[in-house]
Fold FtsX-like permease family protein.
Amino acid sequence: MLWYLSLRTLLFDRGKLLTGLVGVVFSVILVNVQGGLFYGLISKASYLVDRSQADIWVGSYQMHNVDFPHDVPARWLQRIRSIPGVAEADPIRIGFSEMSLPDGGHEGVTVVGIMRDSSLGRSFEVIQGNPQALADPLGIVVDECDDEKLQYPALGEIREIGGKRTRVVAKSRGVLSFLVTPYVFTTLDRAADFIGSDRTLVSYFLVRTVPGANKAEVCREIDRRLPSATAMTAQDYANVSINFWTTRTGIGLSFGAAAGLGLLVGLVMVGQTLYAMVLDRISEYATLKAIGATEREIITLLTLQSATIAIVGICLGTVLSFLIGLLLSTPRTTIAIPAMLYVGSGLLVFTICLLAAGLPYLRVRSVDAHTVLQGS
C-alpha cells in the first residue's frame, strides 16, 4: 500500500520527479567519471611495474617511485639470482635525457633500458615496425601517442638522445608516462649512453620467482642479504608509486573535492525535490495523520520515495557512466572505472538519498493535522 502511494505521489508531478532523477544521475556520473579519470591517471604512475612481468622489484633503500630511481650496484645481480625462490632476475635502467627534434629543438624523455632478450621489464607491445626492435644496433621504441611531442618520428628515422645517434625502429600504443616526458625503450647499455649513466650501476633488479614460492619470504631474504636494498612485490611497489603521487601532490584532494561536490549537488536536488513535493501536498499528509497514519508510516512513505528516485537514478547514472567511459576514454585521457567504484558510488548515493528523506519529514512532523484540514 505504501509502495503504491509513494509511486503515485512521485508520478503525479513528473517535473519534480525528473528534477530529482537528474540530480541523482548527475551525482552518479560525476563520481564515477571523476573516479575513473583519477584511477586512469594514477594507474600510469605504476605502469612500468604493472606491465613488467616481474614478481619482485629490488632497488635502493626506501625506494618510493618507479620513475625516480636511485642507482644501485649492478654486481648485486648474482647475489639476487642465488637466493632460493628466485627463478630469474634481470636489471633495468631508468633515467632522463633529451631527444633531438626535426625543428632543432629538444624534448625530454624517460629512457627505459632492459636486457635485449629478457621478457622482464618489457612493458611495451610493438604495433608498428620491427617486433625485435631492441636487436637493432641503434634501435629504440617510442609510443605513437607521443607522436605530437616528438614531432611525429617516422620508422627508420635517425634521432639523437643525450647526444647519441639512435633510430626509431618500432612503435607501441598507450605506454604513457605519468610524467610529461615520453617513454623511450631500448637496451640496457644504450640506455646508459643516453642518460650518461655509469654502466656499473642500474636502477632496479626485476625478479621472477619460481612457481609456488612465497614472494614475501623471498623479499625478506633479499633484504637480509642486501641491507642497502629494498625488495617489494610488484603489487606493493605499484601501490607505493601511486601513493607517492597521491599524497605528495594535490591530485587526490582535487579529484575527491570534485566527486564530493557532485554528491552534494545530488543531495541538495533530491532533498529539495522531496521537500517541494511535501509542501505541495501538505494537506494530504495531514489527512494521513488525521486518519491515523503513524509517524513510522510517514517516514516510511518518504523513505520509499527517496529509495525509488535513488534506485532509478543510480541505474541510469551507472549505464551512462559506462557509456561515457566506453566512448570517451583514450590512452592519454583514460577513464578506467573499476567495478568496485560502480558499486561504491551506487551505495553512497543511495545512502545519501535516504538521508535526504529526513528533510521533508521534519516539515511533515511539525504539521498539525486539524489546523491544516480546517484551512483547506
